[in-house]
Amino acid sequence: MTITPLVLSGGSGTRLWPMSRELYPKQLLPLVSEHTMLQDTILRLHGLAGLEAPMVVCNNAHRFLVAEQLRQIDHAAQAILLEPVGRNTAPAVAVAAYHWLAQQTNDEDTTLLVLPADHVILDAERFRVAVEQAAVAASEGHLVTFGITPMRAETGYGYIRSGNAVADLGDRVRQVAQFVEKPDESTAKGYVASGDYLWNSGIFMFSARRYLEELARFAQPIASACEQACANASGDLDFVRLQEAAFEASPSDSIDYAVMEKTDHAVVVPMDAGWSDVGTWSSLCDASQADEQGNVSTGDVLLEDTSECYVRASHRLVAAVGVEKHVIVETSDAVLVVPKDRAQDVKKLVNALKARRREEASLHREVYRPWGSYDSVDNGTRFQVKRITVKPGAELSLQMHHHRAEHWIVVSGTAEVTCGDKVFLLTENQSTYIPIGTQHRLANPGKLPLELIEVQSGSYLGEDDIVRFQDNYGRAR
Questions:
Q1: Under DSSP, is residue 163 helix (H, G, I), strand (E, B) or coil?
Q2: pLDDT of residue 477
């Protein structure tokens, strides 16, 4: 039986603000290595036998980012399924299982390796060994969860109490005796001292058919809604759009609650591979290599008499003197300072930003689009300046604006400009003007990225002042 990695990439990671934002969440960021967390999730699977191309479940807003990041590591997905709304992990896995089975012409099955896209696993070799052990159990009809050998009494994770070893599968595959909720500190200490409890990782392995059988047995409304959402799905470029009404009708539930806590076939494989779900800045600090003073620093950082801090600089020098046990994170448009033991409360800041309708809750200053990106360099009353990058061979939509005019200056590369009924080329140091209400399009016909400066002027400069007449990426007009 083959192994199909199923990567769940639907989270928003609000507690890792200001790096992680609603439209550019933590799984799409390089927080631990040179690769993003999504990319690392795929790359650490190298060496597993019978590995198929991955499947990814994500939301519509992240689809082009996900596809681009897979392209960058030369791992095209066999399917990227788009959730119209979030419905937790049980429905997400169900639609992937139904979709995979629907593509087969006979009675084939596959082993799904369900992987959250935002986990850190430092020892990839130990991880692969655990997966190989789990694959044997999954091939015999078991539903496998991976339990993390606890390093401390952690109150932020759920726990799994392991039972007896499963006959014929060795001592490493054990029956699940109990799933337990996040405990208080004294209870967590008791769990760790007993040696019978493991952290619940949220990583699973089972055959697609077995999962759907157990889901139909214990959560029929989820199974029915997801089957219908897949049966009436539609293709959109390289993506699969689930039928919105059917998927919305699915109850929202986790794999644990919907299936694993109810089935008689749940087993757990212990794993000691340097795992972390990196839910907060303090947990990211714990998962990173510290210096002699206990500091983790990234970017242009200068520290004096500072200890046990996490300091990250993205765009400028960050200096700290006499600071202990704090997180300091700088981005192009925000700076976060928080005690490490208050890192959970960053989510409150994000909620406050949303309540004030601040863009910093959802967007970075640099915004990614399927054709490239733009960076809002400056803005003020009736003007805005952007640095625009267009990928080779890409083009923006044919569009017009009711309230703004635009001036384009090419910094490097070649631009193909459509302005009204004219189509012409611009090269380095050349410029053009797009009047209000004029249909226009920007394209890069070259083999190198196109860089240009756009100066907008007008009474309203919001991104919603776009009327699209033609778009290669299926975006709403």
A1: strand
A2: 46
